Amino acid sequence: MATDDDSGAPRSGPDRLRILAIVLLLAGALSYLRGIELGAPENSLPLAPLSAPPSSKRVEAIPAAPGAMRGQNLVLVTLDTTRADRLGAYGFAQAATPHLDRLAAEGVLFTRAVATTSTTLPTHASILTGLHPFRHGARANALFTLGPEQQTLAELLREAGYETGAFVSSAVLARRYGLAQGFDHYDDRASEATVSMAFTERSAEATTTSAIRWLDERGAGPFFLWIHYFDPHGPYRPPAGFEEAPTFYDGEIAYVDQQLGRLLEAVGAESRGDTLVVVTADHGEAFGAHGERDHGALVQEATIQVPLILHSEAGLDGGVAVTTRASQVDILPTVLALLGLELPVGLDGVDLSVDPPTDRAVLAESVYGYAYYGWAPLAAVYQGPLKYVHGPSPELYDLSTDPTELENLIERRPEDAERLRRRLLALRSPDVDRLPASKVELDAEELAQLQALGYLVGGPTQERVDTGGADPKEMLPLLDRLNDLLDSQDLPEPPGLLARVVDTLLGRPTIASRADLIGEIEAMLEEHPDFSPAWRFLVPLYEKEGRLDEAFAAQERWHAASAARRD
């Protein structure tokens, strides 16, 4: 019988499992960990400082006069969940993004562009309206919509004689959320053949094919085409031929770049080069930065920093890097100015072809945890090289020396922090975070689609009034722990020996049944009784077990735990 050291005592079962696990892992025998490829998961991708092509000329504004591209077509490309530092144009030497890199080398690249928030619907609404989320109202995926009172880029261009078409690849941007305003054709058929998840995303190839078909069939005159590629959003499953990228995430980006090449070829044939192309992302991805796995909850650079590239063969000098900080709200006024069209009044954005004010402040926010769970909202203000993050635990960074936000200067530079705090409150009062009750009603299929994307994890739809909730940074480890538990219920069969070995090695519970899952969530709630997402997910689990009284009680606790305190 095996014994421990010289004690003569038999080794326990867990000890034998740990030894077996170590052997298996060292031998590389286990290629899957709960259905996730060990050779490719992007559990940690440290954010890299951005750089522009060495040959680029550094300027503070787009070198083009208003109206320089009058009458040109417009193609707006939005890349979902795409970090600028994973593109070749921004310094990533291992990137396979030749088409994006060419646009940047021949056009204008912004080295300091930021998103208004880090979830898909609000950022796209900001791009299309020139307004911050607290102004346009579509502040959280699946809970709010862009109202008809807001004027979109598509509406403005259609009034100017443009034919307008949009092709989106995710249920998050379905027509019902209000972004179809002004589009003659709005293709949101995200249930077509997919790369990774049925009924949640449309592959870049399918979306591109639909857009090219529209280009071929449209009438004469200028056009505005918006195409949205969702593929870089998790889970990362690049199609065949793209798995050899540094990570599967990079493989998804490379695949999108290939399909963008198809689109650009079709656009060129259609417009003879007389087209302004704008490429950006809705937000980035954290990959562990500041304790965040993906995106939505925080306002750190890994999720707020985005690429922004403009290209036109006529009227726009190439090889230029704009070093002025830009925001997604600047895209609409900049495009309209370049196309020679009048700018609406009341925009939050500015025309980036004009030198910006030296003291301009740029804003970002996150109400993700606030809207769904009652956590505290977060807001950020950029001014010069400094960035201040307002929340339960304020932060201050000097991005000129610390572009990846490793050193919080809040205690060392209190005067700068207070100055930026006052500037933030002057531009964005706390009242703007008093969220109205959601009026969006989702059917079971829509709810399943959004939850499969990790977006709508279920928050009560009551009005949010008080903003004094928990710090999202402190709650993210709990949310990650809950998500790990919930992932186990998607396994096609109970975990086998190898999975149980790995669970034991990593100190994780083995979930072999729904009862095991319920027990683990109940144990979590014993430690953290006010953690509303855990109560929310207990409700359907209890129901499936026929424990209806407990399901009703859990629902009551869910609403109570996630409800913000009222004045």
Could you provide a short overview of the structure?
The chain is 34% helix and 13% strand. The protein is an alpha/beta fold and 567 residues long.
Task: Write structural notes for this entry.
The longest helix is centred in the middle third of the chain and has 24 residues, at 248-271. Among the domains are: 70-347, Alkaline Phosphatase, subunit A; 470-562, no CATH class. A hairpin with a 4-residue loop joins strand 17 and strand 18 (395-398). It has helices spanning 13-27, 98-106, 120-129, 133-136, 153-159, 204-217, 248-271, 301-304, 331-338, 368-373, 414-427, 444-452, 472-487, 497-505, 514-527, 532-544, 548-562, and strands at 32-33, 36-37, 57-59, 73-79, 108-110, 113-114, 163-167, 185-187, 223-229, 275-281, 305-306, 308-311, 320-322, 326-327, 361-366, 378-383, 386-390, 395-398. The protein is an alpha/beta fold.
Poorly predicted regions: 1-10, 26-41, 192-199, 491-495
Which geometry do the CA atoms define?
globular
Task: Round the mean pLDDT to the nearest integer and report it.
Answer: 86
- Structure summary, number of beta strands: 18
Largest sheet: 9 strands, mixed
Can you give the helix content as a percent range?
A: 25-40%
How many whole angstroms does the radius of gyration measure?
Answer: 25 Å
Task: Report how far apart the termini are.
Answer: 67 Å
Strand content: 5-15%
